[in-house]
Design goal:
Blueprint: H1 2-18, H2 30-42, H3 53-68, H4 73-85
Helix pairs in contact: 1-2, 2-3
């Protein structure tokens, strides 16, 4: 049960940092953040996940890679508008 609570807290932590609407470093919407976390948690690894800032930064790298490969013009425009507003 503790792992589930850790994951929920981790999702909230990453969301606070990278949510495009209110994040400290706005990068993605909640759905994309959750997808990136799922990808991160399910990829094979040799090290244990600590749900710390290193893990958060690794999720950020997945988000940025996804954004850089996003071909949907509407998504790109939303991100550009959000960056200009800040």
């Amino acid at each position: 049960m503790k792992v589930i609570l850790d994951i929920i807290k981790f999702i909230d932590n990453v969301d606070i940092f990278y949510n495009i609407e209110y994040g400290i470093y706005p990068l993605a919407n909640k759905k994309d953040i959750e997808k990136a976390i799922f990808l991160y948690l399910t990829e094979p690894r040799t090290l244990r996940i600590e749900f710390d800032s290193i893990d958060r930064e690794n999720v950020r790298a997945i988000i940025e890679h996804t954004i850089m490969n996003d071909k949907n013009v509407d998504n790109l425009l939303k991100r550009k508008v959000r960056i200009i507003k800040r």
